[in-house]
Amino acid sequence: xxxxxxxxxxxxxxxxxxxxxxxxxxxxxxxxxxxxxxxxxxxxxxxxxxxxxxxxxxxxxxxxxxxxxxxxxxxxxxxxxxxxxxxxxxx
Length: 91
Known about the structure:
The chain has 91 residues and is mainly alpha-helical. It has one domain. Helices cover 79% and strands 0% of the residues. It is elongated, with a radius of gyration of 15 Å.
């Protein structure tokens, strides 16, 4: 349903931005996927005259993003134990 999918768009964009320096192709694909998902959701909302509760979506997005960040950080730390991610992102 639309309210369940809506929080995925900003989450996908955030993950895409964080992956850009490590996996640029994956980042680009994820970004394109978020654009397509956003278009589908907006088209569906227009057709069904849906109303969004963005406050609920934002809370869910934050929760999902925190979970994803922990998973991504863990995987990156396992694959690249000597990488200082904060320095890599600031260059």
